[in-house]
Fold:
Amino acid sequence: MSEYSHISYKILRNNDVVKFSAQRLCRSAEMKAISVRIWLPIAIIALLGLYILATNQKAEANIVEYVPNVPQVLTQSAVEVISKDIPQNSTHLSDNVLADLKELLGCDNKQYLSRTYQRGNYWVLENYVRATHGNIDCYESITYTTHGDFTFLDNAIPLVKRWRAPVGMSLFAPGTDFQPTIDSIRYLRDCTGDDGELLKRFMTFHIFFHVDHIPISVPRAEDLLAAPFKCPEVAPFESFKHEDMFKTLKQLTYPINVGRNVARDAAITHFVFPSDIELYPSLEVVPKFLEMIARNEGPLRNKKPRVFPLPVFEVKATARVPDNKTELLQMLKTKDAILFHEKICSNCHAVPERSRWEATAEGARMEVFVVGKREGSFQHWEPIFIGTNREPYYEERLNWEGKRDKMTQGYQLCVKDYEFHVLSDAFLVHRPGIKLMQAARRVNHETVTNNLIDKKISRELHILFGTKKGCVI
Structure:
């Protein structure tokens, strides 16, 4: 007998089939209702999460904004300028030299990105308007880093034409000074013909302002550059009256060292050259310097930290800026050129063995002329040098009006036993016009700065870095 023989079966009638079907439909409906009650909240939560994520990303974009690079397409005139005057390898370096630099420096490439960040009491728009050179290898060039406000932008094209390598300029643009700053950048890029194309290729602009003086509107750089711009007959940096500047009306001091550090930090090359916008370099500094580094001879094999100062000069208002050392030496003989600030602070910019430097003719290649220290008769030296981002920062509590803005950095270089490798043929020349002592005096601001350094900053530096005989601030 089968184990299932006890099970009885009932024959289904028509009304039973209908009843059974109805029951199945009810259970199916109940299951669907349960599924809806389960999945609907999940779907709502998922959609809500996506909305929050998108909102946060938008908010974050307002804080740290990565702006697409300036279009790489060049106009026909730019192509002609570059092909005629600037080789693709604008530093003229051979493959062997580049290979030696890559091995010697061992630096890491840095992405060429735009960002907005806060630096102490200042907002910074880093790489706000970028050059078209794009990403470059850290060892293949030197970035000239500089600073100012828009009224100094008449120096931009002369500087770029002489440097012909990356230039990064930080512009102080508080309040309503932001718009003429933007207009001045647009004018340089869009209204100066071939010079503007050269500037587009090499010059990057950063903008910074105090948290209490934020402009009413800060457009995205890509929108700014895409907007139509009508070229005025006179450049904005020349037509704008100084007394109408926001900085002047609010009696703001110029935070010179914030500008210096902002530009230096943003550089994507291993070597940086923090300098002033009104100081014009001799020609071919970048390729000759890098070729010297690649040879790695003589003092360059020293193990101590080092920087590479350039002697600085100024010329008469009627004189032209010399292109090379041969021209400079001739102008020194005729007194058309003199040591920088010779009539204000002759010890501040005189390099070691200055007389011998001025008596030595220009060589076929760049060398380390002499190795000096910031001590003894050079304890107040304010060298302007090629270095790296490993060197001490400039003290950001100091301003231009109070002077002594490079002295605290110089003290750190001294106590850290830096060597100063003075270059044989490279130099800087201030834009024509010799400054006199009377024009340089700013007594009230100097008193405030002297008190800040002597009573506070010097104590901090002594605690943090120690003291060394011969090192002074």
In short: The chain has a mean pLDDT of 85. The longest strand covers residues 122-129. Residues 14-63 form the longest helix (50 residues). The CA atoms of residues 347 and 376 lie 11 Å apart.
